[in-house]
Amino acid sequence: MKKKFLGLSAATVLGLLVLTACGNNDEKDTSKATNDKDTFTYAISGDPTSLNPINVSDRWGLTATNMVYSPLARIEEDGTLKYELADSMETTDGGKSVTVHLKENVKWSDGEKFNADDVVFTYENKVLKENGNADSLWVGDQPIETEKVDDYTVKFNFPEVSAAAANNIATETYIMPEHLYEGQEEIDFSGSELADGNVVGTGPYSLKEYKRGEYMQFEANEHYYGGKPSVKNITLRIISNADTTKVALQKGEVDASMVLPSDIEDLEKNDLATYAYSENRVGYMGLNLNSDKLKDQKVRQAIFFALNKDDMNKAAYLSEEFYNTPNTILPPNNPFATTDVETYAQDVEKAKQLLSEAGVTDLKINLAYGSDNPEQTLQATLIQQQLQAVGINVELAGGDAAAIFTELRNPGSTKYDMFLGGYIMGNDPDLYSALYKSGAGANYFNYASEKADKLFEQGAVELDESKRKEIYAELQATINNDAVVYPIVDNKKILAASKNIQGIEDARLVPIYSFEDLSKISIK
Amino acid sequence: MIKYILKRLLQLIPLLLVISFIVFFLIHLAPYDAIDAIVTPNMSAETVELMKQRYGLDQPFLVQYVKWLTEIFKGNMGFSLLNQQSISAELATRIPNTMKLVIPAYITALILAMVLGLLAAANKNKWLDKIIDGLCSIGIATPTFWFAMILIYFLGYKLNLLPIIGMYTIGQDASFGDFFKHFFMPYLVLTVAFFPDLTRYIRTSALSQLNEDYVTVQQAFGATKKEIFMKHISRNVLIPVVTQIGQALPMLVTGAIITESIFGWPGVGPYMMTATKALDYPVIMAIMLLSATLVIVGNLLSDVLYRLVDPRIRQTGGGN
């Protein structure tokens, strides 16, 4: 009995050796997997929240949706439109409507022809508030109406003139196949998955298999209007642990993944290429204007003059390759972003002077930040150190990011004086009103400025591009001058990919869903 | 015996109700609203309100609790706030995956612990005992995630022997060989995580047996130490071990959270981790309730097994 036990345990403990002995077979299998030329494996960190094109808004959900479906058009970083299902778009009726002419040769992945009915169907379902993603299709309190002009022309009617609406129509609305739902009376699009699965789209790939928590497998859509994809299969592999992802990349179990700047050095040793691109994010330090200590504009400006964002960014993101430095509420790549504002370059003397003008001594304030976020932790300690130099004492209040922002959303909350956060709001500057207009849903700053509100309202209805730029330049200057938000960084996303993967530039790396068009990549 | 089990089962009901209430109450105490996980800054207040209504989050605390509990009685653990998937269905596919990992690891750890524990007790305070004790100390002090990363680095990457993620290779037909290659590293990590406590437990129980009368009697009859350990002590040590098995029941659900997340094993672990990060509170509550229930059921099981294994208790206990 005992001997048997001993033998068994020895086998377990020394299992490593046993495995080494039969290692040769394994090695063949592994190398076969890495040289698979038909499959591109991309590691993602979690399951998509939604795969329903009507209400998808999460990162991985959009990544998958963007492979299966296509929008009418995309907005590029410089603000220009890139047409997908649309052939052309024009503003009509003096800004009260947009007419879209559709491509005529597009087919769904099941071979059916795509036409205006699909577009009308999609927008009519998306505009319903109960489906959860309608806000960008409402102007004021009224919905945008969609009207079929002929088989390949659709007209969107706005309740009032709106400069942002054309953008909103195009952004992240993926057109659904109406023919699949013909004859169905009540179609519920409020769920996270479509009743009959996500099979038919106009995008480069179709979803073949989804194993929750494990992977999603896609296969090429031969009817894709953008040309037949050169890689036959795409696998999105779900790996929640970042360290595991890194090793999986190094050994070739996955072909590509997002990585951190600190990983790059290791990965380059493994013949992996890295690509950095901006997501047009603004990482910032916000001031809570409810706090009595920060009511005085001079105190707020003094805080900003005491800070040095270059030091923070070099420390957190290692190299200028991996970040841009924003000056205003808009990310630097935004076509409306201006540098013609007070940028608060570090000036310790001025900070001290402003503080004494305000008659403030012994200022003690706290700073909330996400303690599980290494970059914010670093920023917070540097802010504490830099403000110490002008005699401001900062108490660090690390916590859970969701809990901090819930607290900040409470009306009249003064628990936190300052906080670190970040946002990706998209291209049209009107979208930023959700953060800075008085009483807006995400106005964590409790910022209320009549001047800024008025400029937001003017900008939303101004159709002349250059006048619009002026309005938003003034708006940015106003907010900077009021010193409510200190933009720190537009940190880039970094994709690491095996050098066998070609055409990543052509596939274009874009905010949120990483690859604009995966049909453009190939495997060497 | 049956009467005893029935009595214990009846006692369970109020206990489970209390636990369900505590679980629900604690989640509600958390400093955020479950709705925060599903709204984005772009949403209007009206949409947020609609969302709250859809998920029943606008109802008062007790109404929500009663609604939740009635659904659970019907076998419906609710739906994830994040992706509206049925939690029961999700757990039904994930719990077996966790069990496939935890059960073999636990059995191996138990066998290993029996051998090492008895060896240590038989050689009390000698060098073998000290080595085993040292091994256990190292095992206890080693964080699972760290050991897992070491294995991944050497076996998975440097030597390139084993795949590091998932349960099967994607696109291949499921075969035992493929499963085993994916299974081996997480299994080893869990075995190492489970065995030290068990070993110490068995060593202590074996030592306490040494002072029992029957050992003295055997010694008086001139039995060798080897005989005493193999024939008598090892059998009597089984009794406390059986109670350990009952108490290990909750591990079938939550025993491998960290290990599973590291190896991308599609069990309960990554599900629980994602839900926690996303404040997906119906999922967190379901898993908490399930594992609390298993603790109680496990204790009941221990007691019952104890009675079955130990005739002395069966006799006295049966009379009650």
From TrEMBL, chain A:
This protein's UniProt keywords: Signal
GO CC annotation terms, alphabetical: ATP-binding cassette (ABC) transporter complex; periplasmic space
GO MF entries: peptide transmembrane transporter activity
Membrane topology recorded in Swiss-Prot or TrEMBL: Lipid-anchor
Protein origin, superkingdom: Bacteria
Gene Ontology biological process: peptide transport
Family according to the record: Belongs to the bacterial solute-binding protein 5 family.
Protein name as annotated: ABC transporter substrate-binding protein
From TrEMBL, chain B:
Matching InterPro entries: BPD_transp_1_N (IPR045621), MetI-like (IPR000515), MetI-like_sf (IPR035906)
One GO term (biological process): transmembrane transport
Keywords annotated in UniProt: Cell membrane, Membrane, Transmembrane, Transmembrane helix, Transport
Main location group: membrane
CDD domains: TM_PBP2
Chain ranges passing through the membrane: 12-32, 101-122, 134-159, 179-198, 237-263, 283-306
Entry keyword Repeat: no
Organism domain of life: Bacteria
Membrane topology term: Multi-pass membrane protein
Compartments, as annotated in UniProt: Cell membrane
GO cellular component: plasma membrane
Keyword rRNA-binding: no
Family of the protein in this entry: Belongs to the binding-protein-dependent transport system permease family.
PANTHER family: DIPEPTIDE TRANSPORT SYSTEM PERMEASE PROTEIN DPPB-RELATED
Protein's recorded name: ABC transporter permease
Organism annotation: Vagococcus zengguangii
